[in-house]
Design goal:
single chain, alpha/beta, nine-stranded mixed beta sheet, globular, AB_hydrolase_1, AB_hydrolase_sf, AB_hydrolase_fold
Amino acid sequence: MAATHNGIHYYDVSTRYARISVSDSGGNGLPVLFIHGNSSSKEIFCHQVEYFKKNYRVLALDLPGHGASSNASEPRKAYSMPAYAHTVIEVLEKIGINRVVVFGWSLGGHIGLEMLALFPKMIGLMICGTPPVAAGKDNVALGFRQSEHMGLAGKADFTEEDVKNYAYETVGINAPHDQFIIDAVARTDGLSRQYMFEAFTSPQATDQRLLAETSKIPLAIVNGSGDPFINAQYIEGLNYQNLWQEQVISLAGVDHAPFWEAPTRFNPILADFLCDF
């Protein structure tokens, strides 16, 4: 179902595993795709859509099992980082995108890292709240901090309290907690959390650390200094070959979603990154 609101076009794209809801500012500018995190939705990028739509073709989508997209027809196959990446690529191919810069937040950043090996049309990647980790539970653990609500990331069935806790923690305790954020968590197919997390910690998972360290395209990393989920020291200590500005950028006083909590500080950084393309 297609619609237009405030100059943004909304439409669905049929893919192998799900019907995907897309927002698209249109135009002839460089396409920039925003990929949301676990149990979120494309609406979390509203501040970026407004900021960048004049100069870029701003795209965002809801992952399978999230937001206005359908649940996956084959959950066990569709709900993993590599499968999400293939779904995103299928959408981009179907709407005719020949070059794109991707911003991925949290799970979305992991999907972006997967795309490094799968999609040569991605010419730049910025990630946020996303530790690039090697395969296996022990390697995954190196990239994360054990926080009170970290276990919710892979939990299938949420109580009302779980919904609120996860929503508040992921966007930042001191950030605005708009109702759509809570609704997005409540709407998410719980199997998408469970199966994604199981696949992520499997020995057969992708070595995202290797992809990040050897990336031939520019990789930008912007994190909040107060992020309760990630091990900042681990992320800053990797041996990147093509890290934008040769440093991991840390924004003081914000948590897991700086683009939402502090858009006036975040957006100019992404704008600088996009100027390189």
